[in-house]
Design a protein that fits this description.
By secondary structure, the protein is of the alpha+beta class. The protein has one domain. The protein is 23% helix and 15% strand. The strands form 2 sheets. Strands 1-2 form a two-stranded antiparallel sheet. Strands 3-4 form a two-stranded antiparallel sheet. The protein is globular. Bound molecules: zinc ion. The site of zinc ion has 8 residues, from helix 2.
Length: 93
Amino acid sequence: MSVSDKARQRVRQRASNRCEYCLSHQDYVMGTLQVDHWLPVSRGGMDDEGNLCLACELCNQHKWAKTEAIDPMSGESCPIFNPRTQSWSKHFC
Ligand SMILES: [Zn+2]
């Protein structure tokens, strides 16, 4: 499996050239924004655009293969923000 150049272009355009996790624009991050599999391939994620998002290197490295994290307020495990299924402003309010 691999993501085609055209799919990468569409993911970049859909994200308006911003990291979909922290919203940093390409002009303000070090390196090139990367196409990330929200559900990692190693965990059964597919290359379809419904599983792809644009991420800066810091967010991509921090997220790594995780789909859940511990909420520091509640101490409970919760899903990591998924830009394909959730609203950024609602998730981070
Ligand atoms: Zn980011």
